[in-house]
């Protein structure tokens, strides 16, 4: 009888926990819905006014086109600023690139005692690096960040060195990390532009892209399940949003990095230094809607190739002292095929061929003989080189001799 009673108590507890979990999820959903209902009219207005240049109140913003790697629109995008938990984008990159995510780790006292937003880890907890990754990116767990740092880098400073090494590899000259979580501290900063470049790199990793696009996830700690909800308010709300990361500290204020994909047009928007969550949300929506309302992807690679084929038969060159006066040409490497152009400027795209008509031999293969510029409203936005497709050696004495013999033989 006592055994049956114990089973009943355990069963009742399980039901209670399950109900509480669902109640928590439902409460989170209600709060999110309430939040967006409160800003609904302003969101609608932001979409209506999308044809105008966006008025944003965050300290620094950027719209980054992932195809051309260019900034469509920016405000103070190169200003150095604190970035709060958007730091965890780099933390996730270093983790994914340097660890077996199935590995189980034991949580340290240092990690368990970390302040700020938390996954809820306790000293001695057992958890996989994969679940730490979800805890890092969904609920922005600072405790997860420190445990990752200690596991992968040996210590927080050791992991910060790995983060900075990666930043250097990516050419981020105004980015510096001192921690894996982004809590306020000296020497920890980036820019809106460089944060977009980092995010663009991170999203090329399938695991990273999968994690940041996840709205809800269940991790396992010591064999027990725990439900996580993504802190990104735009994920699941705004069309095309598929990540990436929120952030807040007293110094950085509200921050949000967002990836959006619509009709094969993929952008990253960065908002740093917003006074409130509402401003962060609205500024992000304004930037996203502005980009899609005003820009379209144009196949400039096709336009360049067509212009080159028209130009090529007309090209004449004087290779002074070369064994031949004509040379085959080719187009140089094109970094991308598509480029974002304002819809109103679609008819203002021009192509201009710049050519070299005189060179001294020897001429090496892949020597630059000219270029094709793409201009919008008479401003150059992209250039592709025209290169020699062969080498032309300089004439030697014997070449002059044989030329002379050939000339006499025709007399």
Question: Distance between termini?
Answer: 126 Å
Sequence stretches where pLDDT stays below 50 over 5 or more residues: 1-25
Largest sheet: 5 strands, antiparallel
Biggest sheet strand line-up: 2-1-9-8-7
Helix content: 25-40%
Strand fraction: 25-35%
Q: Supply the helix-strand structural class.
A: alpha+beta
- Strand runs, count: 17
Tell me the overall shape: globular
Number of helices: 11
Q: Name the assembly state.
A: single chain
Question: What does the model show?
Answer:
The chain is an alpha+beta fold. Helices cover 39% and strands 25% of the residues. It has eleven helices and 17 strands. The strands form six sheets. It has a five-stranded antiparallel beta sheet with strand order 2-1-9-8-7, sandwiched between helices. The longest helix is centred in the first third of the chain and has 47 residues, at 2-48. It starts with a helix and ends with a helix.
How are the SSEs placed, and which strands pair?
Layout: H1 2-48, E1 60-65, E2 70-75, H2 88-98, E3 104-106, H3 109-112, E4 126-128, H4 129-137, H5 142-153, H6 156-169, H7 192-203, H8 206-212, E5 216-221, E6 224-229, E7 241-249, E8 253-262, E9 265-274, H9 277-294, E10 295-299, H10 300-311, E11 318-320, E12 329-331, E13 338-342, E14 349-355, E15 358-360, E16 368-376, E17 379-388, H11 397-409
Parallel strand pairs: 11-15
Antiparallel strand pairs: 1-2, 1-9, 3-4, 5-6, 7-8, 8-9, 10-13, 12-17, 14-16, 16-17
């Amino acid at each position: 009888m006592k055994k049956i009673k114990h089973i009943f108590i355990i069963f009742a507890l399980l039901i209670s926990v399950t109900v509480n979990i669902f109640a928590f999820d439902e409460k989170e959903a209600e709060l999110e819905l309430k939040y967006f209902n409160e800003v609904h009219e302003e969101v609608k207005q932001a979409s209506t006014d999308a044809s105008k240049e966006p008025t944003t109140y965050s300290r620094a913003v950027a719209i980054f086109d992932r195809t051309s790697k260019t900034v469509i629109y920016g405000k103070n995008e190169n200003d150095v600023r604190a970035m709060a938990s958007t730091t965890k984008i780099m933390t996730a990159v270093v983790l994914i690139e340097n660890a077996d995510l199935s590995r189980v780790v034991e949580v340290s006292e240092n990690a368990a005692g970390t302040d700020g937003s938390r996954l809820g880890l306790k000293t001695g907890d057992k958890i996989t690096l994969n679940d730490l990754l979800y805890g890092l990116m969904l609920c922005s767990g600072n405790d997860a960040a420190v445990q990752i740092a200690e596991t992968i880098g040996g210590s927080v400073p050791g992991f910060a060195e790995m983060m900075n090494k990666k930043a250097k590899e990516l050419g981020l000259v105004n980015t510096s990390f001192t921690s894996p979580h982004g809590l306020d501290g000296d020497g920890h900063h980036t820019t809106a532009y460089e944060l977009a470049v980092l995010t663009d790199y991170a999203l090329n990793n399938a695991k990273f892209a999968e994690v940041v696009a996840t709205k809800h996830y269940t991790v396992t700690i010591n064999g027990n399940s725990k439900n996580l909800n993504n802190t990104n308010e735009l994920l699941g709300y705004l069309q095309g949003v598929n990540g990436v990361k929120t952030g807040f500290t007293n110094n950085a204020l509200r921050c949000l990095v967002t990836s959006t994909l619509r009709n094969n047009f993929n952008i990253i928007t960065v908002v740093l230094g917003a006074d409130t969550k509402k401003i962060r949300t609205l500024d992000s929506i304004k930037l996203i809607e502005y980009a899609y309302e005003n820009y379209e992807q144009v196949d400039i690679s096709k336009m360049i190739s067509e212009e080159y084929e028209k130009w090529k038969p007309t090209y004449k060159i004087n290779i002074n002292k070369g064994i031949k006066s004509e040379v085959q040409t080719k187009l140089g490497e094109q970094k991308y095929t598509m480029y974002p152009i304002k819809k109103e400027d679609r008819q203002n795209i021009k192509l201009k061929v710049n050519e070299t008509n005189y060179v001294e031999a020897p001429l090496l293969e892949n020597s630059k003989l000219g270029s094709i510029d793409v201009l919008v409203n008479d401003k150059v936005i992209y250039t592709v080189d025209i290169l020699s497709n062969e080498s032309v050696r300089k004439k030697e004495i014997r070449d002059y001799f044989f030329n002379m013999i050939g000339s006499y033989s025709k007399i």
